[in-house]
Specification:
Serine Threonine Protein Phosphatase 5, Tetratricopeptide repeat; 72% helix; mainly alpha; two-stranded antiparallel sheet; 577 residues; 30 helices
């Protein structure tokens, strides 16, 4: 059955029907839950559907079951790549290559993961270097002092301040191009002639050669005057004002934080709004105000602030974590507004984008919660008892026609429409029994009893499956439990009779050696039998039955001990002669 379902899954995958492939592989896994290949195949199908979280779970199960299989690590790496966990993906591919060093798929995957990791982890690109950077080196002051046209500027503090700033960052040159002194200084440093406009006419900036001709009669150029070292750097008025405004904005933010802690949300909004007006280069003001709107239930306002924070943050090349915080907050607000399962899509997208900016555990949990809520809501939206009854009736008709796979499909659809219907579980259990899928049938029968402990069919289905699996003691207990709810049920009485006959057959020694060996092997797989055999007290009891008849008689007076002995007899472990 597992191989058949696997073959169907492979065919569906090859045809591009990935959702059907997932269904078939899931069916195969239910039949063979320790087959690592099935988890690997389902992981590939999930990845093809972009369900990377499910693909990751299956890939992890694959390598858990078969840690020395290189393809499992290929699946694991692909799932991590889909989730943009590029570091984890690279690690998975490396582990696979340790097992199979020549595997080209693993090599290619590792290369892709490493490139993606470098691309996402490197810092924001730095601005290009200024072409005039070398002109503002240590020799700048000497050259300006030697030039008669710029020598006088060195006595002017604001000019000195500008040139010191250009030494630190030549890219700031465009900030000072309107200052004719800077232009003259640049010409002196580059040995160029710039046209500068005086108050009433255009005059050519003299070069170093011109200045030397004007001093004819002097045998040599006078020694340059020393560069003045101002005692304190003059603070540019504009820069000072900017710092004061930023400090004021931070103060408003602190006041907003204090009001938020007191749950004085209106006051907090006012302070954050003032901070935003004063300084639009700090997106934390927007994300903080969004948090207040979220607490107030003003989800649209929260989402707008988050969008502004993301847009402005990208313009300013803000920290990835700040942008991720805004996207996470947006996703949280969107979840609050969801009314249908489709509404969750944009919230899930926001969380996924946040995780590409910064891998935060809280964001990942919110994503998982949103996906679960979407799935639950889809099930609620799909709920329709009337259609469930119609599908169950279709299944009943297929069952009568002995078309058991078709009947299973109808019962499964009925359960999707109404997962609380014990009848559909009971009927599907009967189909599974006909198909020889005993574990699935037993699971459905137990679910039927769980939903309605008084539903007799649940016990008859469970008891019949256990009897078919030759678990006669368990089947007997199931029928006896059913009799408590329906004492006159003939199916229970007949089932008990059949179980007792089989148990007594083993007790009398009427089993063939093959039958006895089979019953003992099955009994040894039963956890209850294993517990009895490993119990030190029971082990001594068994020894006494063989070697100490007097002690054995005392043990027989204890009903608990005799109950366990009877279970060992029923399992064929202990034989009565």
């Amino acid at each position: 059955m597992a191989d058949e379902a696997k073959a169907k899954g492979n065919a569906a995958f090859s045809a591009g029907n990935f959702a059907d492939a997932v269904t078939h592989f899931t069916e195969a896994i239910n039949l063979a839950p320790t087959n690592h290949v099935l988890y690997s195949n389902r992981s590939a199908a999930h990845a093809s559907l972009n369900n990377f979280s499910e693909a990751l779970s299956d890939a992890q199960k694959t390598v858990e079951l078969k840690p020395d299989w290189s393809k499992g690590y290929s699946r694991l790496g692909a799932a991590h790549m889909g989730l943009q966990n590029f570091g984890d993906a690279a690690s998975a591919y490396r582990k696979g290559l340790e097992i199979d060093p020549s595997n080209e798929a693993l090599k290619s995957g590792l290369s892709d993961a490493e490139r993606a990791f470098l691309r996402t982890s490197r810092p924001r690109s730095a601005p290009e270097a200024s072409p005039f950077g070398d002109s503002f080196g240590p020799e700048m002051w000497v050259r300006l002092a030697n030039d008669p046209n710029t020598r006088g500027f060195l006595q002017q503090p604001d000019f000195v301040k500008m040139m010191q700033d250009l030494q630190k960052n030549p890219n700031n040159l465009n900030l000072y191009l309107k200052d004719q002194r800077v232009m003259q200084a640049l010409g002196a440093l580059l040995n160029l002639k710039f046209q500068t406009r005086s108050s009433d006419e255009d005059a050519e900036m003299p070069s170093a050669a011109d200045s030397s001709s004007s001093t004819a009669g002097e045998s040599k150029r006078p020694e340059p005057e020393p560069v003045p070292e101002p005692e304190t750097d003059p603070v540019d008025a504009q820069e000072k004002e900017k710092k004061e405004i930023k400090a004021q904005a931070q103060k408003e933010k602190e006041n907003g934080n204090a009001a938020y802690k007191k749950k004085d949300f209106e006051t907090a909004i006012q302070h954050y709004s003032k901070a935003i007006d004063l300084d639009d280069e700090d997106i934390s003001f927007l994300t903080n105000r969004a948090a207040v709107y979220l607490e107030m239930g003003k989800y649209e306002d929260c989402i707008k602030d988050c969008d502004k924070a993301v847009e402005r943050g990208r313009e300013l090349r803000s920290d990835f974590k700040m942008i991720a915080r805004a996207l996470t907050r947006k996703g949280t607000a969107l979840v609050k507004t969801c009314k249908t399962s489709k509404d969750f899509d944009i919230a899930i997208e926001a969380f996924q984008k946040a995780l590409t900016e910064h891998r935060n555990p809280d964001t990942l949990k919110k994503l998982n919660d949103a996906e679960k809520a979407k799935k639950d809501l889809e099930q609620q939206e799909y709920f329709d008892p009337q259609i469930a009854d119609e599908e169950r009736e279709k299944g009943n008709q297929f069952f009568k026609e002995q078309k058991y796979p078709e009947a299973v499909a109808c019962y499964s659809e009925a359960l999707k429409r109404n997962p609380k219907d014990p009848k559909s579980y009971s009927n599907r259990a009967a189909c599974y029994t006909k198909l020889g899928a005993m574990p699935e049938g037993l699971k459905d029968a137990e679910k039927c009893i769980e939903l309605d402990p008084t539903f007799s069919k649940g016990y008859t289905r469970k008891g019949a499956i256990q009897f078919f699996m030759k678990e006669y003691q368990k089947a007997l207990e199931t029928y006896q439990e059913g009799l408590k709810h329906d004492p006159q049920n003939q199916e229970f009485l007949d089932g008990i009779k059949r179980c007792v006959e089989q148990i007594n057959k083993g007790s009398r020694g009427d089993l063939t050696p093959e039958e006895l060996k089979e019953r003992q092997a099955k009994g040894m797989q039963d956890p209850e039998i294993q517990n009895i055999l490993t119990d030190p007290v029971m082990r001594q009891v068994l020894v006494d039955f063989q070697e100490n008849p007097k002690s054995a008689q005392e043990h027989m007076k204890n009903p608990l001990v005799m109950d366990k002995i009877q279970k060992l007899i029923n399992a064929g472990i202990v034989q009565v002669k």
